[in-house]
Amino acid sequence: MTPLAAAEERGATKIRTAGAIIIGDEVLNGKIIDTNSAYFAKWCFSLGISLKRIEVISDDESEIIEATKRMSKNYDFVVTSGGIGPTHDDITYPSIAKAFDLELQHHEETFSRMKRLSKSRYSQPDFSWETPSPMLTARLRMVYLPIDTTQAEESQLIFVSDELWVPIVVVNGNIHILPGIPRLFEKLLDCLKPTLLPRLTDPDGKGMHMIMFSTPLAESEVAPYLTELAAQLEPKGIKVGSYPRWGKKSNTVTLVGRDRDYMESLVGEMEKCVKGRRISVEGEDDSESGEDEAT
Question: N or C: which end of the chain has fewer CB atoms below 10 A?
Fold first, then answer.
């Protein structure tokens, strides 16, 4: 299969698995707290997509090339976050272009949208879109995009909102390049959702379901029952989870899967066997628990 045919196939395949690459030295050195990976995890869960891996890597060309090539091969849907701004260390576009032997192309529609939708900044009163300047050069970095000229452009650049100039750039059929700014990352993902529904294993987008239980029992006490239950439910695609809550008087047990009706049929048994009750939000019954901590 030719690289073009493979990319087209990836862009049309059913989306079952996903991966995320969070790019930025500022995350690795603790300057900022990454919230995009958590948002993406919840987004995938809501659509029934199995998120398999999240990686945080530096603003390093070789790291970006290796991670994107590997994840594109291993997962149906991949997002990158960060590194597409106007400064010298924003190297996501050129690095991904190099990974897949693409050229960076000046994209006129993106530039036009940028000029129309960008807000003027008080710190740049003399800035002009028509006059060459270091500020204009910096902004132009954001409209040189990795585009495969052998493929239809509409499958590689998705403008999901009339309010935003930045497109979601799709490379190799399944790598979706997004900004690292949380507000933009979240907005773009949410607006992308309708276009993905036909490619989901559940086209209604009902996603996964979770049922939570609060138990006063220590994990070691419920472990034998949960181990047996997990083996029983694995063929049905339902996962059993156990989560200690350090310093609290109860722990949490969960069921996660697609078969909501079957999971609901287990609620009575679960409550009895863990000597607890179903909850909607973890910790909602903390004030009702006994005196001994569940450790």
Answer: N
204: exposed, middle or buried (C-beta count within 10 Å: 0-12, 13-18, 19+)?
exposed
Find out whether 241 and 178 touch, Cβ atoms under 8 Å: no
> Between the CA atoms of 171, 174, 180 and 186, what dihedral angle is there, to the nearest 10 degrees?
130
Instruction: Give phi and psi for 32, each to the nearest 5.
Output: -125, 155
pTM flag (> 0.85): no
Provide the total of helices (H) and of strands (E) in the chain, helices listed first.
11, 12
251-272: string of b/e by CB count within 10 Å (b at 16+)? bbbebbbbeeeebeebeeebbe
3-state secondary structure of 159: coil
Euclidean distance between CA atoms 123 and 8, whole angstroms = 44
Residue ranges for the chain with pLDDT beneath 50: 289-293, 295
81 and 23 in contact (C-beta within 8 Å)? yes
276: left (phi over 0), alpha (psi -120 to 50) or beta: beta
Long-range interactions of 132-138: CB distance < 8 A, separation 24+: 138/86, 138/87
Q: DSSP 3-state assignment of 69?
A: helix
Q: 76-127 pLDDT, tens per residue?
A: 999 999 999 999 999 999 999 999 999 999 999 999 999 999 887 766 777 8
